[in-house]
Amino acid sequence: MPRATTDRFSRTHEPSVKQASSKSGNGSASSSGDASRAQNPLFNTERFGQHILKNPAVAQAIVDKANLRPTDKVLEVGPGTGNLTVRILEKAKSCTAVEMDPRMAAELTKRLQGKPEQRKLEIIIGDFVKADLPYFDVCISNTPYQISSPLVFRLLSHRPLFRVAILMFQREFALRLVARPGDQFWSRLSANVQLYAKVDHIMKVAKNNFRPPPQVESSVVRIVPIDPPPPVRFEEFDGLTRILFSRRNRTCHASFQAKGVIDMMETNWKTWCAAREKMIDDTVDFKTKVNEILTETGFSETRPAKMDIDDLLKLLDAFHKEGIHFA
Question: What is the reported pTM?
């Protein structure tokens, strides 16, 4: 996997079209799809999970949703050939584009070469999840599907907080992000993201707007971080939701009876007590202790599928008061 770098990209990195087309033993593609990719290797993006947004009206609508200001510094993830980038540069002060595919970075560099906007663009070639991110006010992304979840949580953990993110995902992932308690898609992902941000579904994008077209429909969401963020360690909240949403339609009591859960929590509790030099009462039955907390909070027979953020925080706080932690 390429190392993230801030060096500008040059055409020397672009793979040879001749090499791409000569991989077949007899010089011909094994199928019509292979033939198409050999003729235009730039759009053979399956390796990175990318689908190029080709509809200019959709690209413009996405950028418009960000309400960019002339002073904004924008982070774009997965710029591809630059259909969003050129529109971002028209409105923003600068844009840092993080691109995993060297061919795409070369195409973007070529597209802006010699234009005034070129000096407003910086390209980072490498893995977004590992790259050192600069300060940015707004993030815009036609997100490569395989980094959807890491991208969201990387953005929410970034400091200082950004103002808004306009992100395109596969439809089902987007619906999970915006789901509410009781909805079909309310999940651990929904709760973990909505603890730290307000998320709205703002636009549907049909698969025929991409090249190559994906197998599923897409959606655009708006993410606005909660500022200041809640004073809750993500690892703790995620540890609780991991247990509860493993079977979201089971009761909370049943979720905590799953194999290994009580043992893990008891180990964490003993570690917490030892770190604070607190005596551990060996007569305490830890399983009973957990059940008492669930009963006292009123969540023993509640199903996680219907618990909102406040419910989850209330339960987490009750465990913490007893020295029980999840990370």
Answer: 0.83
CA–CA gap between residue 166 and residue 75 (Å, rounded): 10
The predicted pLDDT at position 17 comes to: 41
Please state, rounded to an integer, the average pLDDT across all residues of the chain. 87
How far apart CA 29 and CA 35 sit, in angstroms, is: 5
Q: What is the pLDDT of residue 11?
A: 32
What's the pLDDT band for 160 if we cut at 50, 70, 90? very high
Spatial CA neighbour of 257 closest among 296, 298, 301: 301
Are 265 and 326 within 8 A, CB to CB?
yes
Would you say residue 20 has pLDDT above 70? no
pLDDT in tens, 102-137: 999 999 999 999 999 999 999 999 999 999 999 999
* Residues found in the chain: 327
